[in-house]
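tool=predict chain=A
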Amino acid sequence: MRRIDGYKLQSILGRGRMSRVYKALDARQSRLVALKVFRPDDLLQDLVETDELRRRFLAEARLMHELQHRHVAAVIETGEYCGRPYLVQEYLCMNLAQLIGEAPEVEPPARRLSPLRALEIADQTLQGLEHLHRAGVVHRDIKPANLHITQDRQVKIIDFGLSRVRDQELKYPPGVIVGSPYYAAPEQIEEPDKADLRADLYALGVVLVRMVTGNLPEVRDLKDLDDELFGPEWRDFLKTALAVDPGRRFNDAGSMLEALSRLRRNWEKSRDRVCVLTAKEAGFRRSGPFLPRGEPLHTKESKNLSFLELDRLLQPRSHVRNQFQKTEDGMLDQTTMLVWGEVSKERMHFEQAHEYVRFLNQSRVWRLPTVDELVSLMQPRKSLEDFCGPALMQLEKRFWLWSADTKSRSRAWLADMEQGAVMDEDRLCSFHVLLVRSAEKEELSVMNS
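tool=predict ok
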């Protein structure tokens, strides 16, 4: 495995015109980091001298190191390896694209978030953008994959490979697209060197529509925005954010933040009246005996993966009517005949999760639950603001849980119990563990008596 100083490279996260970004393991502190290495592509080197590109990379590294903000991914250190400068940023395992199930090809529908959660994410992103813009940085690639989410629900903006920094202009030849299709503002696609901070605000408007509708917006009519549900305030806000003419958008992140705060206050007043879903949308609930798969599954890499109980967005096709009864060491679900134990107080990576289970198996045969077993706890939404979380009180808002199912040597399946969805994650990431075991004979006899 290749090393750069004290970092073991795990996989490539992205390629920009100026650099490559790798996921790496900091062997000294046993943590994942994002390592960005100076490696300009041939097209860029034809346009600009390598020494000048190197100077700009180092200037960007210094700037990002100085841009300390709670909603901007932190730069840990900078260095040089074999003549190539690099910078190291904190690596955050969860991003918004994973949270909503956005596919790499982007166009298919994604999962919807609670509008309040979406507004919270937009608010934190705007705070980060306001800080960047004041420092003269236009990000130019705001999209769900570049908005990482911490375990305590905080947004961190990442990936400054396409950023435009004041007094450090880098001209692109005609026809070169800077940014991501569907999220980039019209002027950024046409003349990327002239795009200013309002291009970032446009991109965030697209992200907000994506979060609350699951779809990418039709800019001219916002056809997926249900007026009866959201009201005119949402449409007015988004029409301003998504105006084709930058002069008709919000002037800056501060003014967009103020408008977003008003939108949130209005939504909090009206949500109970307007956001009740129909019974069909809430989903059918199974009430009879249901025995979910208990054997771990190795799915392998597959674009066509579909767990039996999940739809295309990896959410439950139907829901179980749980019947919980307290036992000596957990909660017995009489519908699935599973006993759910405690959730771990600490987060741990996948191998540590197995070690944790082995340690606790001195008195009971506990194990990691499969995806199917975790899905049996997910509940249907009755409104847009409902969470899909289970009725198990012991979770205590620790909703990202490892399953026993694996996808590859480096990735395993994770359940988001809050949103009611499944996703795969790096085994070196740290999440909580919820113990499970099959009910024993004496417990079943008590249940049947």
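The longest helix spans residues 253-274. The mean pLDDT is 85.
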